Predict the structure.
Amino acid sequence: MKIMKIEGDRKLTGTIRVSGAKNASVAIIPAAILTDEEVTICNVPEITDTDALCDILSDLNVETSRASGSLIINPKNMENVEIKEDHSKKLRASYYFMGALLGKYKKCSMFFPGGCSIGARPIDLHLKGFEALGAVVSKNKNKYTVEAKELKGANIYLDIASVGATINIMLAAVRAKGKTIIDNAAKEPEIVNVATFLNNMGAKITGAGTSRIKIEGVDYLHKCFHEVIPDRIEAGSYRRMGALCGERLKVDKLIPEHLDSLLSKLEEIGIDLEIGQDYVIVSKNDHIKPTTIKTATYPGFPTDLQQPFTVLLTQADGKSKVVETIWENRFMHISYLNKLGSDITVKNQTATIEGKTALKGTEVVATDLRAGAAMVAAGLVAKGETTITNVEHILRGYENIIEKLTDVGAKIALIEV
Ligand code: EPU
């Protein structure tokens, strides 16, 4: 087991370089099997979620290697065998193999995916999309089998603009016969990046980034080179840490427009920002104004940044509110923030934060990935030592977090116990 220890109340200054987006990479890696040729994907973060997907590729006899920041995937000798249950359960994104295998072989058999316990996380919209394309879905205990004689383009309306369903349906539809239209599609930048990757392999997808995506099926996809976009959630997490204890902390190699909602909120509460073409410089403000945030699908305020933002609001002068609308169980970090000294109550998916409260280091738990980022942020601002357990969650999504924070002045260590 690993734990993190943070000696808080130190200034963060210098530059943090943002890694490639986890939530784009975890879809692009499974999507790579849609061709039989070698693809090179650059800027794939080295995190345990991408390692877990490479383990699944290995189950499928797909070769992978890493070279100068790129992941090379060669599915030449691939076999459509069952993915080990342990491997499917390791992360949510294992379910992208459903769409990709269905698209390529018209058949897949998969165990339930895993992932953070932030809500019920049904996959009914993914399965309805596969069915609309002509597949038959059956469920036996904890395993799904999805198969089709032929996949045919269809008009699919998503009841919820789901990121996962939009991507999974794209993966199944790229090699279907005819045209597929996904309406009420999710618009997140990661979806645009996955569509660009598929187009680089020869797919014909238009409209990604809008609520209507059109896919003209093709028979064949080929090798390509692709670059993963910067991780807007990682960038947002470090900006929040900068707002808490930064002194001109530069968060570099990002796309500022991907986080307009966060930048507006940071400006609204009085955080001093310098926004460049591919960087943001953040400094702490001792007099933060309280505010209300409400999570929403893109371009709204991202749910994945809600938990770290709560930490910032513990330092605002007055009462703030955080309303979570995407996941029903994304307030697990609150009890640990209160243990550190905050004054937060949760009722009906709304957290009310009474600021400003001094935080004092103690033992806390990373209950999920972004709750873990919130605990790191809290540990950095708290006086004394904070110990975080269950850090495996954090390592799933933040590449080199210890090195990145140490380089800008944090006292943080990962310890094997
Ligand atoms: N939903 C359904 N049925 C479905 C699919 C989704 O009811 O078939 C509901 C969900 O229960 C949820 C809402 O729709 O209430 C949105 O879910 P979505 O499918 O958009 O989420 P996801 O694809 O499972 C991705 C990210 C999450 C991020 C959400 C929302 C990945 C691997 N995960 O999840 O990221 O919170 O979109 O933006 O891309 C994280 O990185 O920490 C994380 C949890």
